[in-house]
Amino acid sequence: MRPFSIVLLLLLHCVSMAAPAAAQEADAGVAEPDTTELAGLLAGLTPEELFLRASSSALQFEHMREPSRRILVGNHEESLPYLVTRLDTDDARERHALEDILVRMGPAAAEPVIEAFLVEAGRTETTRGARLAAAVLGKIGDVCAVDPLFSVHDHHDWKVRGAIGGALGRIGTAETVPPLVSLLADENEVVRKSAAVGLRRVAARARDDEQPDADAALALDRNVMESLARALGDQHYSVRYSSADALALIGEVALPLLLEVSEDGGNEARLVAIRATGRVGSRKALKPLVRTLGDSDWAVRAYAAAAIGAIGADGPSRRALERLVASDPHPFVVASATAALD
């Protein structure tokens, strides 16, 4: 046998002998911390000391991080007064830990966080606390936060207004609709996008297959749909896209507005309106969409063909698509019409 083979066999033998010993040590709990001792240690700590461990990245506190968070959540009456004083921290780890802990507390944390939000929103030197408090309230989802959040919707900092829009959108109930419609007209595009996304969430909740929200459906009235239709012409794509999605989710009742914008809106608005029309899926839209296949803009023709395909072509619209495939000069239009026919 070659020397190299002998050495290899010896190494394999050593490894196989060492493995059972390592397994025995693991079975014996050599590396496992004493959880009883740890629980006793943490139980005697103040909320400040617990939060230090709950938010720390230090190796010495790694095994204490999650148990500390659980204790803070469980003893929320004692820990909340301290935790809300940390909302304006500039430490990213603390902010992440704080949000996690407060959201886990759920409705029990809502009132103290609302009070802290109003205080933080009134500060001029920093907006970190107001933004974090708004994010927490949105994730908790308590409708009691809607009025306090909207009470400062005209805040001078767009980041705060955006956080308010995001929080209202996450709550996503009928009560949030009027505030979100108001924010849809904000001067800042991030705030407008937050509002449009929020209205999209409300529309999704209104037509939830398992548990539709009737109140949310009623709140999405003509005024709301008209506001969303106007937003289809927004200069920022994210606002147009989210508004179109909201109208598509509202469904067939929004179809007249979508068709109106599809025919008479600005070019960018027409494209997202046509796409949303296809998503509504109503065969009532086929005839107007066939008319749009003759538009002078190749992108409009391509989008109209795709929308017909999404709905499902009937006889007249299928023949119109076939003519488009045979005669349109633009390859993208031909590809869209071909896909619609397939």
Describe the secondary-structure layout.
Layout: H1 3-27, H2 35-43, H3 47-55, H4 65-74, H5 76-83, H6 92-105, H7 107-121, H8 128-140, H9 146-150, H10 158-171, H11 177-183, H12 189-206, H13 214-219, H14 222-231, H15 237-250, H16 255-264, H17 267-280, H18 286-292, H19 298-311, H20 315-327, H21 331-341
Strand elements, count: 0
Shape: elongated
Backbone CA Rg: 29 Å
What is the class of the largest domain in the CATH system? Mainly Alpha
| Unreliable parts | 1-32
Description:
The protein is mainly alpha-helical and 342 residues long. It has two domains: 38-283, Leucine-rich Repeat Variant (Alpha Horseshoe); 284-342, Alpha Horseshoe (Leucine-rich Repeat Variant). Helices cover 72% and strands 0% of the residues. The chain is built from 21 helices and no strands. The protein has helices at 3-27, 35-43, 47-55, 65-74, 76-83, 92-105, 107-121, 128-140, 146-150, 158-171, 177-183, 189-206, 214-219, 222-231, 237-250, 255-264, 267-280, 286-292, 298-311, 315-327, 331-341. The termini are far apart. Residues 1-32 have low confidence and may be disordered.
Features:
single chain, about 350 residues, mainly alpha, Leucine-rich Repeat Variant, 21 helices, about 0% strand, elongated, disordered N terminus
